[in-house]
Each structure stands twice: as C-alpha cells, then as structure tokens.
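ugh finaly. both done.
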Amino acid sequence: MSVETWGEMPKSQIDSETPEQAIARLIAVHEADPEAHTGENESLQAHRQNEIIDHPASSIIPDKFSNNQPTMLNFFTSPSTYTTHGSVAQSGNGLVYLYTTNHSPVVSDIQIPLPFLDAQLYPNNDVVIDFALRFIKGGSTYSASVIIGDSSCGFGFLISQSGLKCFINIDDTQVISDYITFQDGTAHSFRVFISNVDSAIYFYMDGVQIYSTALFGFGTQIYDASLYVSTASGSNSSSSVEFSMLRAYYKV
C-alpha cells in the first residue's frame, strides 16, 4: 500500500497547487491588503483610536508633532547666556559641561528659564519633557541633580554614590523614590510625563518607566519654570555632568 503525503498532494486533478502553497499565497494577499485589520474592533482600527498609543519613551521625533502642539526645543548652544555658578562651559555642539573636584568649587550649577512650562497657559494639558545626561564621578563623595520647576514646586532626578532617585516637590511636600540603579559614565535619556488625566507623574530612563507617583494638585502649580542642573563633590572626589537637548511639549 502506498503512503500518501497529504500536504504535498495537489488540491484537485485540475489544480496542482498544494495546501502549503495555497496558504502562502493567501497570506501574501492578506499582507498586501491595505484594508486588513481596519474593520470595527480589529487591531489597526483599535490602535488608531487609542488616545495614547504605546510607543517607547523618546521614540516620537519632533517632526511628528502637531503644528497646534506647544513645543520647546533647546540644544544649549549658548550656556553663557544663562545664570551659572562654578565651573560651567560649553562642551561640544549642544553639550553643557559642569565640573567640581575636591570642593573646588563646592557646587557648579546652571539655571535655564523655561517660560514655556507655565501651567497658567495650559492648566489642563499633559506635558512631556525629554533630556539627555551623562554623569561622571571619581572618589566617594559626590552628587548631581536635575530639577525642573520654580521656587515652590518641582520635579526631577537626584544622583549620588548610592544611585539615582526620582522626586516631586509641591509646596515643600516632597515624594521621593527609592534608589534606582544608575550607570555613571554613560549617556542616558530621561523623560518626565506629567499626566493631568491620570493625576500622576511618570519618570523614564532609557525608555523604561522607573517611577511614578500622584500629582496631588501639581499640574496647575508651575509658573515661569526653570531648569536647574548641578553637580558637587566632597574631599578627594570629583563629579561632572554633561547635559544636552531639552525637548518639552504639551499635549493638546
């Protein structure tokens, strides 16, 4: 008795196409169909209708933003125009470099006005802030910080020999995360997403969410915000920060 290999048999005496060939042909037709998965409750239609689509943090580039979306982009090409203390200089195209060593100076910092971040202008809008930072340390006593806000309200990142912390401060009430592993000497991308819809603030590093906490009224309290970047070192220690590219936009 002969052994029939059904998968290799033609569909009929008048059609030599095998089942595998038919499947491959139909898949190709489906992949070439621009209307595939666009019907009601199908995947592409649901994706398009989502208010927030799950793209990795920092993956949306500026030319994809709406013309009606208030946006600010700063590459820090003129740090001399900002308020500075200690050792602060331009380091390459769009890089701001801060440095301290063995208490000399004790702290170096830069303050950059961000009038764009004014909740009086956009009290109910979500805001996204992206930036890049590289922290380099030597010795055992050092710290750095990136703070965005005003004199009473702010949020950002704190770096020390124990790691990195995320924090939010509102009228001197501070919520701060546990230490998060942070690789010094390597450039990292950071994102802060303030969601008035969720009443929460989310912190990301290299595209991964590392912390979140409630806003408790924060969304409408920042006026005439500034960016503060600083670094400090103790005895027989050194620390430096390279800060580049700040992008911020409101969701409208």
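ok and the 2nd:
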Amino acid sequence: MKELFNSLKALIGACIVSAIYMPLGFVYSLIYSIWLSVSLKEWKAFFMFWWRFIDGILAAIASLIYAVGYALDLGWNVNGEMLEDFWTHEENTYFSQKNISVSATIGNLEDKGELNSFGKVFSSWLDFFFNQKRHSIGAWKLWKFEEDLRSKEWTKKR
C-alpha cells in the first residue's frame, strides 16, 4: 500500500512540474532552434533540432508504454500460483510475490534448473518474443542487481 501512495505522490509532483516546464521548454526550444539556424547560417539546423526533439518525446512515450507492460507483468506474478504449477514442481518460488516479474521468476527457476519442459518452452518463447538470447535469466540477474542496489543505496538512514 505504501508503494501506491509514494508513486501517486511522485506522479502528482511530476505532473505539476511538467505543467510548468513543458510549455516553457517548448517556447524556449522554438526560439533556440531559430537562433541556432540563424547563428550557424544553416537552415538544416532548425529541422535537425526538431528531429532530435521529436525523437526524444517518442522515446519518452515508448518508455511509458514499456512501464505499463512491466507493471502488468508484475501483476501477473502476484497472481502466479497457477503459473508456478504450470512451469515447475517447486513450491518455494518467487511466484505470488510482489515487485518481481514473471520473466525474472522464470529466470530464477531456469538458472537453478527447476523448470519443467513447458516452462522451458515458454522461456524459449520469451527469448524469441523479446529478441534476446536468454531473456528470463537476464531478467532474473537484473532483478537481483536492482534489489542489491536498493538495499545498499536507496534505504533510509536510521
């Protein structure tokens, strides 16, 4: 529950800052791109600036879309008892725990050699779908690294 309130607080803060900064930044960028084009005496500079600007905005939107997909994945894992029964014979897994993805959980089982044949096929499907060699194991290693980083660097001092 604490995560929900903290994320709402961060979202509201980001929306307030964006409501102020984005219009000002847009006007500044328009003036700057004109100045850049005039000072360099090259008309292409204006279009190159806006190409990078639009590309950056699209990258931010892509990041948002990815974050929504990742959040859905976290939700699937919280309700993961059925997935656990499909993909392994183990009962003590990261399925049904919060803040870990299905891919990372599968990667943990794959790394320990505890996936059944259906789980191995699903892991191969994830590799194909995400165009990666070992998606699940990579997700597991990334999750472990992030957990270690959070525990060492992002905890409050007491």
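summary for the 2nd one i guess: DSSP finds six helices and no strands in the chain.
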